[in-house]
What we know:
globular, 8 strands, TIM Barrel, alpha/beta, 245 residues, binds phosphoenolpyruvate
Amino acid sequence: MSQRYYIVGNWKMNGMRAALSEARAIDRAAQRLPKVEVALAPPVTLIAAMRESLNGIGVGAQNCHHAEKGAHTGDLAASMLREGGADFVIVGHSERRADHNETNEMVKAKAEAAQGVDMGVILCVGESEAERDSGEAEEIVARQLAASLPDNAQRLSVAYEPIWAIGTGRVPQTGDVAKMHRRLREVLVEKYGDEEGAEVRILYGGSVKGENAAELLAVPEVGGALVGGASLTADGFVPIVVAAS
Length: 245
Ligand code: PEP
């Protein structure tokens, strides 16, 4: 695997137009660090504006509907997001799985819908604190991933995000991250074969900051980071991009 690290900011439900200045500052910094692939997933309302004003980084969405069109009030099809300027979609984030009862089957269908219009996909998986404490986290997350994976690996990345680490300032031991990423790699190889399964980047997500990014990125099989809170400002996000460069 000779890919660049992939560092993606998930702005969640944060960011008005005033925040575009932060995105522009992140974009300028990323252009000076071409060894890293950088992207932001802002709220839908900022996708077009980011697409127009940023040159060096990818812009994506945080969710899509699995259907191409139809009677789904308030939802957006992957093709609409693409036309609006997004070139990838995050699917299966734990907040959507929890807040919108998204199942593995729905996550798989969303990933395939995005691939169907040639968008990248970042598919999120991760265990709860109780699942971690049970000692079964690797097997639980491996099953979640296997059931959520799209039928092909086209433009696919996976993000391992322990739910208990999201927004809490807590991060797993690097040894636990290594074990999980190794297990998830096995699932990918089993599904897509040696070559394609090895190409899928597995990002780590959960309280990544400038201070811990280098250590987490150095873990074997960690191909980048999915970053929430620290991605909202250039001051928070650029040090993570620098750590990946
Ligand atoms: C996330 O929700 O994807 C995330 C990783 O959040 P944070 O970096 O704030 O923990």
